[in-house]
Amino acid sequence: AHHPSLRGDMERVLGKSLEKLPPDRYQSAGEFGDDVRRYLCGQPVLARPVGAIGTAIRWGRRHPLTATLAALTICLLVLGTSISTTLAFVFQAERQRAVAALGFAERESQRASVAEAATQVQLRILARNTYNLQLEQSHALLQRNPRSALLRLNDPKLCLPEFREFTWRHLVYACEHVQQSHVFANYQLRQLAFSLDNQLVAFVDEKSQLHFIELGDNSVRSSAIQADNPSEPRCISLSPESKHLAIGHEDGRISIFEVSTGNLRQTIDQCEASVANLRYRINGELVALDKSATIHVFGAEDYEPTDKLSMVDEPETILASTISPSGLTAAILTRPRQLYITSIHEKKRYRPNFKGSMNALALLNDEQLFIAAQDRLWHMDTRSEKLVPFHHEAGRIQDIVAGGTVVAVLSANSMSLYLHSQPPFRISREPDEQLASISPNGRWLVTTRENAIYVREVSPEATQSHYVGDLAFALAEYTATQFAVLSRNGTILLIDKSTGTVDRIFPSGVQRAMHIAVSDDRQRMAVAGTLSPVRVLDTASGECEFELPERPERRTICRFITPDQLMVLSPNRISTWDLTSKSQVSSLELSGISAVAFTQDLQHFLVGTDDGEIQLRDRTTNDIAKSYGKVDAPPLRIISSAGDRQIAVAMDNRCVAIINPDGKHEVVTCGPHLLPISGLSFSRDNHTLASSSFDGSVRLWDVTNGSQRLAFEKRADACSDVLFLQDDVTLVAAHPVGQVSIWKAVRPPPTNDSLEGK
Asked: What's the whole-number mean pLDDT along residues 308-328?
């Protein structure tokens, strides 16, 4: 056992001195003594080599101040390093948490943005639906309270300014053009006639004095009738351009007067009996019906007899008579209460088997006859002779008059107006007030009472119907003031869009005409039909300039590429023609196609295949450039908007599909109509689509969501085409009964581009 004081280095020094092997012992007593001295001095001994730590400790003992400073420095370094490391780990953890929080915040922000976008979309949909609802309600209020309707339309919260398009502008126009009424005193009316432009009223008073009412400024001017015929005037009629006035007399003579001067122009004495009715045709011919039930037709300008036919086989006494606005159909009621109808141009007579006490007749057009029988109003289709009860009045019907799409009925207790396919509405009536006439467009109703003439507005100026005297079928824009109407028999009528009057008529020679196109310089027209080749007409002369040597096909449409180049497109062929050399430039055969349309750039064309796929094809190669997918039913008609922003497809399920060509080709469906769709047209701003149907309806659709903005009152039993004019304030529709409807709107506010352009 060792003494406790000999432990440690001394123990090792002693142990080394006692080693058995000489190499392991001290080599001399001096080495042993030196090692003992090292121990005593606190220095490392040779018996046990001291490591770095031991050396440092011994050095620290020898140099305590320096060692203390070094130790403090080391401790501070270690502490600083530890703190730095710890803080680094903390900061790293915080950074990771911050990154995670930022990612979460970004995801939440994205979700919030998506939710906000969805909310904005829903709010916009709600605002658009509110806007469309306000249009419907304003339209319903239009007749009863136009001021309230106008307040709704001008409310920026209900009708956002950014949504205001043609429908809104039309309703504003209608509200601002409320019904008017005028009273002209001190006149006892005997006979009356309207001009075809609905602005001039000619009438004869009890003194056989001729007067004119200018509806534009509500003035009355008088002209003295020359005393060429002392017999009583029985009927009068104004020529199409209001140049001549025809007066039929009791003795059978017809006097023709100059409207501008009031002077007698000539006298016609071809009628065998008292003249019962007179009517000018649009081409200037005069149709006269005398009391012997004989119809006389006199030529335009020269008034030479051109036709004569009798409506009855045996002489009968006429109780009532009527001639259609076109002058092509006449109906009479004879004393034994027998009804006779005659188609003058077809020289056909009808004798419908109608049992009833008839007392009044009125032809609305060539196909619609209204009959008053005691307290019931009947409607007859003159072609099918189908008779149906139209309305039941509270008292006995005394008289009926018709014009445009309006039938006015005077009964013992009231006066009623019937707009086509709409419920009747009563109008105020003074005691002893009598019916006189209705203007050709159905806008103005004239009544009489004692020594006064009452002229009142039936419908606002914003909605007009004009009888053009032919089977109106297709429409095209012509000039800034006119549009062209193509009739089924190929006749082209140029209509003034402000007044609805026919400015010019010329034939195209195309049978079963279907489509009309006008060149940009307005020098040429192209007309396509199903029984005749496409014909190119010179608009100045109305003569045929070129007839394409191609067989006629159904659904053929035309488009002028330039004033001298014409493109013809049908489901079976697309061809291009040079009109200067009258030669074909190119031609491609097509197949499996049910509908075709031009694009705005004219480098492509649209087709609808038999299975309902809508394709964009190159017009030179017929290659498919793009497919827009399939619609719900095979297409019957296709159009594209300006700039090809939308494509509208009329399908055989009586619905309209609106395709957005960009993006995912989203399809919006509108409808359905009751009968197949006959016409489509985009508004100039591409926000509204107008559709017409053979059921007679014309509707306006929201292009964005397909909701119905407005359904116009039916103006006729059928509608064959509809067209937005480029003035952005006029919509027109053609009706096969020979009628044209015109809807007007206020002008849109100027855009920023237009302001900058100024």
From this structure: 89
Q: Are residues 47 and 87 in the same domain?
A: no
Residues 6+ apart with CB under 8 A from 108: none
Query: Can you spell out the DSSP letters for 347-375?
Result: TEEE-----S-EEEEEESSSSEEEEEETT
Asked whether residue 193 is assigned to any structural domain, the reply reads no
For residue 104, give Cα distances in angstroms to 95, 101, 108, 109, 437.
14, 5, 6, 8, 78
CATH number of domain containing 381? 2.130.10.10
> Is the residue at 373 inside a domain?
yes
DSSP 571: T
Q: Is 650 left (phi over 0), alpha (psi -120 to 50) or beta?
A: beta
Give yes or no: residues 330 and 410 share one domain: yes
Boundary of a domain, candidates 121, 141, 163: 163
Chain centre to alpha carbon of residue 6: 119
Q: What is the DSSP string of 697-709?
A: -EEEEETTT--EE
Model confidence at 286: pLDDT above 90: yes
Q: Say what the pLDDT of residue 731 is.
A: 93
Q: How many CB atoms lie within 10 A of CB 272?
A: 11
Asked whether residue 150 falls in the same domain as residue 57, the answer is: no
Q: Identify how many contiguous H helices and E strands the chain contains and give both numbers.
A: 7, 56
Whether residues 77 and 10 fall in one domain:
no
Say if residue 45 is in the same domain as residue 85: no
**Dist. CA 248–CA 266, nearest whole Å:** 12
Is 632 a member of any domain? no
| pLDDT tens digits along 712-732 | 877 677 899 999 999 889 999
Sheet holding 593-598, edge to edge: 593-598, 604-609, 613-618, 624-630
On whether the CB atoms of residues 368 and 404 are closer than 8 A, the answer is: no
Which pLDDT value is given to residue 416?
Answer: 78
Residues 39 and 135 in one domain: no
Has residue 757 got a pLDDT over 70?
A: no
| Contact (Cβ atoms closer than 8 angstroms) between residue 237 and residue 246 | yes
102 and 78 fall within a common domain:
yes
Number of Cβ within 10 Å of residue 742's Cβ equals 24
Q: Residues 652, 676: contact at Cβ < 8 Å?
A: yes
Query: How many other C-beta atoms can be found within 10 angstroms of the C-beta atom of residue 411?
Result: 19
> Per the confidence metrics, is the pTM higher than 0.85?
no
Residue 128's domain comprises 67-163
CA–CA dist 398, 71 (Å, integer): 130
Residue 221 backbone dihedrals phi, psi, to 5 degrees: -125, 145
Identify the DSSP state of 690: E
Q: Place 256 in a pLDDT band, splitting at 50, 70 and 90.
A: very high
Q: How many domains does the chain have?
A: 3
The secondary structure of residue 460, as a DSSP letter, is -
Q: What is the pLDDT of residues 336-377, one digit of tens each?
A: 778 899 999 888 888 888 777 888 899 988 888 999 888 888
Considering 163, 182, 206, which residue would you say is the last residue of a domain?
Answer: 163
Pick 50 or 35 by higher pLDDT. Answer: 35
Helix (H, G, I), strand (E, B), or coil: what is residue 94?
Answer: helix
CA-CA distances (angstroms) from residue 245 to 24, 204, 301?
158, 11, 12
